[in-house]
Amino acid sequence: MIYLLSATIMMGTPLLFGALAEVIAERTGMMVTAIEGIFLMGAWAGFVGGYLSGSLIVGFLAAMLAGLLVASLYGWICIYLKQHQVVTGVAINLLVVGLCSFLYRVIFGVPITPLTVNPLATIPIPLLSEIPLLGPILFNQNILTYIIYVLAPLSYFMLYKTSIGLTIRSAGENPEAVDVAGINVLRVRFLTVLLAGVMGGVAGAFYSIGFLGMFTTNIIGGRGWIAFAICFLGNWNPKGAVIGTLAFGFAEAIAIYMQSTGNSALFPNELFIALPYIMTIVLTISRKSFSVPAKLGVPYVKEN
């Protein structure tokens, strides 16, 4: 159980990066439906940067830049060209899949054996990691896990206790009022999309160089969409995003544990692999009400 709970925290890390980014962006009215592509591009750039340089820091910086570029394209098309957010996001996701596969082969060819890097190591916090039960679960994680669980309460404070948060929430609820106050609504939305790109890039790189130490074109496998769903299920609130992330992280931890132990006598491994996605469908259907931002998915057109 200690292993499962520790793995829950770890596997929830990239999902929380994506979910928090999605919460902030969607509060301004922007559904970042390109999140799956941002995750994948981050995973690709993170691995390429980390492998070629020999530094995971360079890898994560490359992932942040790659996520930023994908988000910039999405934001420009949806915010400034007023195109449909869902259609644009799906198109970019498909583009990124082909682009990552092509560029990987251009750079590395077709390796006989998979190329690998040493993933992020765990960093036990002195004294705290020695606390019975809680120590191995909470205080024996990698640096990204510590960072995101600090960012989560800061995100909540920023959204609900600061003027910046009020502007972000107002841009998704009543953008006309924000415009009247002399604040550029399009710029606010674009900046939050860029933030989602940076955080999504880090989330994607977590899978390639933070956990697995390798890259494949199916490495993300829909986890960007799970982060997208966590935003909805968490009611566009960082608190809900944390709770949802832990639930999905636990499901993924169970899947990894069952695969590693080979306990498939009663249930096939494919069932456990599908468990996080089954949870997404079940929880979405069972949810009765949502506090959807009023202008979510609606382009803002300034009146003359």
Please provide a written account of the structure.
Keywords: Cell membrane, Membrane, Sugar transport, Transmembrane, Transmembrane helix, Transport. This is Simple sugar transport system permease protein. It is a multi-pass membrane protein. The protein is mainly α and 304 residues long. It has a single domain (2-286), classed as ABC transporter involved in vitamin B12 uptake, BtuC (Orthogonal Bundle), CATH 1.10.3470. Helices cover 71% and strands 1% of the residues. The protein contains 13 helices and two strands. The chain has helices spanning 2-27, 35-53, 56-80, 85-108, 134-138, 143-161, 163-173, 175-180, 185-212, 223-233, 238-261, 269-273, 275-286, and strands spanning 123-124, 140-141. It has a two-stranded antiparallel sheet with strand order 1-2. Helix 2 packs across helix 9 (185-212), helix 3 (56-80) runs antiparallel to helix 4 and helix 10 runs parallel beside helix 13. The longest helix is centred in the middle third of the chain and has 28 residues, at 185-212. The mean pLDDT is 91.
